[in-house]
Amino acid sequence: MNDQAITDLAFNVFGQPIVVRASAQPATWHTRLIDLMGPYNAPAPAHASEIIGVEQVADATPWHVTYDKYTNMLVDEDHLVQHLEWRIFTIGVLQSVAALSVHAGAATRAGGALLLPGLSGTGKTTLSLALASQGWQVLTDDVSLLDVVADEIIVQPCARCCHLAPDALGQLMAKHIALNGPFGDLPEYFRPAELGQPGPVRWIVAPSYAPDAELGLTRLTQAETAALLIGAGLRQTSRTLREQWAAAIKLACQAPGYRLSFPSLNAGLAALAEVTGEPLP
Amino acid sequence: MVANIPERPQRRANVEMQVMPDGSALLYDPRTDQGHVLTALGALVWDMCDGSMSGEAISAECAALLPQQPDTASIVHALLASFQDLHLLQTAEGTDAV
Question: Which of A42, A69, A94 corresponds to the end of one domain?
Answer without folding.
Answer: A94
